[in-house]
Write a structure and sequence with these properties.
It is a single chain. The chain is α/β, with parallel strands linked by helices. The chain has one domain: P-loop containing nucleotide triphosphate hydrolases (Rossmann fold). The chain is built from seven helices and ten strands. The strands form two sheets. The protein has a six-stranded mixed sheet with strand order 6-7-8-3-9-10, sandwiched between helices. α4 crosses α5. The termini are far apart. About 5% of the residues have low confidence.
């Protein structure tokens, strides 16, 4: 796999892990956050007074049993949902005070998403799939094409640009999803069970790619995983149970 491009917004020396630098600023701050859902007459507390901070360039694993609140927390950090109570700051902005338009703008400029089910469009070729987020952001076509080619090479898919998702293996599809998540140069990469549909070999390759992205580009990586072996590859593990950090 080709090395990641170092001519990005954030450059780090080859021999230095980003998370090892104590001066790196806090990029995610979650303070006393609760999330309560009302399902008919039933009240479900998905998160209960959760607090955590993440520094720029850290690789964090959110773990816990099914229903522990880890995916809900990831969605809130990703500006896909708002907490019922508490405060969340992303890149210094309090997202609980932003309207939908400003939340959308923040997502486009700062956050990339990788999901277990990939969500590549089956009717688009691989290069077109990766380009979609940049098209919504209004990036010029030539710039998009150049970035797509660069990302495909970086994730080892330089010869798959004209292939459709159904023509890729599971590991290739997930690497394509990661390339799509990186197209807008996000400061934060969020991944919900990114290895859940992959075998052991491909899972290890995806985690290695996340670590390389973090180290070479300075990208903050936060993943949700139920796999303890995957979680151990992160800088820190934040374990949730019944909506509480334990």
């Amino acid at each position: 796999m080709d090395n990641l491009d170092e001519n990005s917004d954030i450059n780090m020396p080859h021999d230095e892990t980003v998370a090892s630098r104590p001066e790196m600023p806090v990029i995610v701050s979650v303070q006393n956050v609760s999330k309560i859902y009302h399902l008919g007459k039933q009240t479900v507390t998905a998160l209960n007074d959760v607090s955590m901070t993440v520094r720029q360039g850290e690789f964090i694993a959110l773990t816990g049993p099914s229903g522990s609140g880890k995916s809900t927390l990831l969605q809130i950090i990703g500006c896909l949902d708002k907490p019922t109570n508490g405060q969340v700051n992303i890149g210094g902005q309090n997202i609980t005070r932003l309207n939908d338009a400003r939340l959308s703008s923040l997502r486009q400029s700062m956050i990339g998403f990788v999901f277990q089910s990939f969500y590549l469009q089956p009717f688009l070729k691989l290069g077109e799939n990766i380009a979609v987020p940049a098209m919504f952001k209004g990036v010029k076509t030539r710039e998009i094409n150049e970035k797509v080619d660069l990302l495909l090479n970086q994730v080892g898919l330089g010869d798959r640009k004209l292939h459709y998702p159904k023509e890729l293996s599971g590991g290739e599809t997930q690497r394509a999803a990661i390339a799509r998540a990186l197209i807008n140069n996000p400061k934060i990469l969020l991944a919900d069970e990114p290895t859940g549909n992959l075998d052991t070999v491909n899972s290890a390759a995806i985690i290695d790619l996340f670590r390389e992205i973090r180290q070479k580009l300075g990208t903050t990586v936060i993943i949700v995983t139920h796999n303890p072996e995957i979680a151990q590859q992160a800088d820190r593990i934040i374990n949730l149970k019944d909506g509480v950090v334990v």
